[in-house]
Amino acid sequence: MKRTKKYNPLKQLDLVAKQALKNAAVGYVTGSEGCKLIDLRNKQVSYASHTTVKLISTLRHKWSVFIAVFGIDSTGQKYMKSEEIIVNRHVLQSELSDILNEKHLALGKNFNKKHLINYGWIGTPFVKEWRESEAFDVLTNLGAFEYRLEEQEDE
Question: Phi, psi (5° rounding) for residue 91?
């Protein structure tokens, strides 16, 4: 009879991380000072404890990421074009940029350059379906429309 371990520290850490991060997301908009932790219950930037940062950055997770390009049209209406990406393998948060850069740039190429304001993304360390209105609120709270990218040269 094969004996199995009753206590597996890695499984225990994974369970702790899932519980601690169940209402957390990580977000970034161009021009801001690094990634921010977002509390999904109120859609606001929240304080990231050392433990939370460690759980997000040192453990591998299956990420759901909402990427967006932001613009303001000629009438002053704010809008975004977006894509939702599910990363089907466990990756570190630092590895997300390699996965997302190409898709984000492609999204920006199909955007009206006269309206272009900024780029941004939000991701959860678990599978989540984003509602576009929810993602828009979160990214706006992160400052998506507060920083304008350098003006593009006219072609």
Answer: -135, 160
The C-alpha atoms of residue 57 and residue 48 are separated, in whole angstroms, by 12
The pTM for the full model equals 0.83
CA dihedral 60, 61, 66, 70 (to 10 degrees): -30
Listed as own residue / partner, the contacts of 81-84 with beta carbons closer than 8 Å and 24 or more positions apart are 81/107, 81/110, 81/111, 82/107, 82/132, 82/135, 83/107, 84/129, 84/130
At 154, the pLDDT band (50, 70, 90 cuts) reads very low
> β-strand 116-124 against 24-29: which pairing, if any?
antiparallel
pLDDT in tens, 71-124: 999 999 999 999 999 988 888 888 887 778 888 888 989 899 999 999 999 999
Instruction: Walk across the sheet containing 64-72 and list its strands.
Output: 44-45, 36-39, 24-29, 116-124, 64-72, 78-86
Q: How confident is the model at residue 150 (pLDDT cuts 50, 70, 90)?
A: low
Residue written as tokens 């709270």?
141
Distance CA 33, CA 83 (A): 23
